[in-house]
Amino acid sequence: MRKLVYYVAVTLDGRIAGPRGEFDFYPMGTPEQAAAYSAAMNERYPETIPTAARAALGLTDTPNRRFDTVLMGRGAYQPGLDEGMPSPYAHLKQYVISRSLGRAPSPDVTVVPGHPLRLVRDLKGQDGLDIWLCGGGKLAGTLLPEIDRLVIKSYPVVAGSGIPAFDTAFTPTHFAPEDRRTFDNGVTVTTYRSTP
Question: Which residue ranges does the record assign to the Bacterial bifunctional deaminase-reductase C-terminal domain (predicted)?
């Protein structure tokens, strides 16, 4: 069965973005450290690179290794849309969960106005690779009962405020670490699996 995987960057205080959606404050280290980190992540998760950037990174012909579907909330989708990218991950099946977006700006994007839990359960029952939960915090909070894996890229920075990784009611949910790698730029990438 396909798994729902929340693959996301977070600060030390659990924020995925600043109060206005900022993410340019994440430290990448020296150019050499940043290049080594990016190369390792692109090798492991090439499908998480937006379609427009894949050619510049030599990923145009790289097959999807882990995901063939992406779920985004309106907040995660809007920055690409604002930059003229109505289909940011054209190499994936794209779903945007939003009550306010209305009609999809691209035929490659499916807007789902409600019931994301039902959507995820339906997608899990279909054949294919895993499903990438791209963000944001409200959507992750709603989908928490269906998240099978977390891939947390923890950056050595405290945001102080901003969008939390999970915006939901107090809901203790257990995960067990499976794999951890620390990079020279200070980023730690940990994979967790859900536990009963």
Answer: 3-188
